[in-house]
Amino acid sequence: MSPPRTVNRLPPRRGFFARTWILWVFLAIAAAAGGAYYYYNYATIASAEVAYVKRGNALTSVYGTVNVDPVEQIIVHTRGSGQLSAWKVNQGQVVKKDQVLAEMTDDTLLRQIDSAQSNLAQAKIRQSLGPPSAGDLKNAEIEVDKVKKLVDAQNLAQVEYDKAKNLLAELRDKVQNEQLALDSDVDTLQRLLDGLLATQKQNLLLSPIDGIVLNIYANPGEFLPPQTQLCKIGSAANQIVANVNEEDIGNLKKGMKAEIRLYAFPDQNLPGTLLAVGNTAVNQAYPVSFSLDNPMASLLPGMTGEMNVVIGEHKNVLTIPTRAIRHGFVVLRVVNGVVEEVHCTIGFKTLETSEILAGLNEGDAVILSNQDLYKPGMHVRELNAKDN
Which of 343, 384, 350, 345 has its CA nearest to residue 365? Predict the structure, then answer.
């Protein structure tokens, strides 16, 4: 009997997970790293500029939007009619008093001037030649002398001498009248020409003041009748004009101090003094004018901004910078690195500082700038505190 055969069996086959566990571990690590990368780079923002809620004094004020306007503004009108032939200045250009702003032409007027100049020249020639009867007068004077000699020599009757003298007197009157007519003709034509030239001069539009060209209302080639608005000239000196709602206007008095901020200079507070309060409202807003305590050389007409006139104060209250507030009451607070949206109750408010009546606590960090970049739930890794 032969010994039993030995059978060599293959080791048992391992499962799929057992064979690929290293791959799964690698994928898990990659996913975790990707999630961390996404969280770190997309669900968080590197830093935020914040200020902290603190106690201080809050002011209440009358608020208004402002414009920089020239102290004096003059509309330049056409005086005569004609075609606007050329502008001699540009909008925004600084001009001097009596500087030519524009020229107008009137073809009919030009023809009248040419005709008057020609007629005047001819009249002056006639005037220089003298009266037409001057020759006859000279001959009559010679004739009177001859007749007198004949009468004195008793060669001619006295009556002939009297006739000659009468004729001479008539000619003298005639020559005198002719000279007066010649002089009058020249004088009349000269006055006519002067008037036409004065009218033409009116077609040179001059600046009434030293200032700046604020607006231009007409284009070259247009025919403009008399009293057409041509342009607006503003004085070199500027003032701040604010529009204040009618419910606030009663709180303002001449001499009050104002804090003014122009959008062209967002980081500069410009102190001003209230000069006058208008007595006529436009769309329920009254104009109020201010002078700047320290006028800026770079101030230009047309600049806009905001202003506050302080009329009250609350002491030792919670305050934050006004620019941390959006939509009038929304604040973004950062708690443990996470952004929260908080709806606050706002008390006294100026362009710089606002009083917090409810919604925030002393020491809370609120985002000051670029609020649109931050969403509730977003993480902030670093806070850049700004002193308020």
Answer: 384
